[in-house]
Amino acid sequence: MTLLTNTYYKSVFWAPIVIPSLVFVISLLMGDPGFQNTGGSLANQAAFLIFSLQVAGIPYLLFLVASHFLLKKDFIKGLKQYSFIAPLIFIPILMIGYWITTYLYALLVGDSSWIIPFSDIIATMGLFSIYVMVVGYTYVLLAFLGYHLLKLAGLVIDDET
Q1: Are the C-beta atoms of residues 97 and 58 closer than 8 Å to each other?
Q2: 10: number of CA atoms within 13 Å, CB side?
Q3: What is the 3-state secondary structure (H, E, C) of 83-127?
Q4: Burial grade of 125 (CB within 10 A; 0-12, 13-18, 19 or more)
Q5: CB 34 within 8 A of CB 24
Q6: What whole-number distance in Å separates Cα of residue 3 and Cα of residue 72?
Q7: How far apart are CA 16 and CA 52, in angstroms?
Q8: Which residues partner with 157 through β-bridges?
Q9: CB neighbour list of residue 14: distance below 8 Å, 6 or more residues apart
Q10: What H or E segment, with its residue span, contains residue 138?
């Protein structure tokens, strides 16, 4: 079985949303809801992954949709250039998503201590920026490395015109 280059990169693009969701579903199917303390089980990992989807997944989903729209015409060529700036573009999207998530959580539970003043977002952005750049560029590196390794193995073929 071989993948086209376009299919490989689109799959890699969606993996940060799909993989945590699949782990959560598997956890549910195994009879563990993922929210109880079971000592490092798949359920704990699933709960962490679902929380990460709430904080970063929703902003990433918006980022994905916008990215696909921007790269629609020449996805592969555009992706190769875009991937070098994508983590930097994602930083403000993640920060806004984090602020909205904590604000909504504070409203739901009635605890205003969860609300981060918007003025503190700038200070918090420094820490998030480092995290996003390390994770983002590591992911980009792994995606390109995976592509080249799979291409060498004959499992990915070019579909560029």
Answers
A1: yes
A2: 12
A3: CCCHHHHHHHHHHHHHHHHHHHHHHHHCCHHHCCCHHHHHHHHHH
A4: middle
A5: yes
A6: 19
A7: 10
A8: 4
A9: 64
A10: helix 118-152
Specify the length of the chain in residues.
161
- Residue 19, classified by CB atoms within 10 Å of its CB into exposed (0-12), middle (13-18) or buried (19+), is exposed
CA angle 128, 12, 72 (to 5 degrees): 95
Residue type, 159: D
- Tokens standing for 100? 């909205």
pTM for this structure? 0.69
Beta-bridged to residue 3, according to DSSP, are 156
Task: Output the tens digit of pLDDT for each of the chain's 161 residues.
Answer: 788 888 888 888 888 878 777 776 776 677 655 445 445 555 566 556 666 666 677 788 888 888 878 877 777 777 778 888 888 888 888 877 777 777 777 777 777 766 667 677 677 777 778 888 888 899 889 989 999 999 999 998 887 54
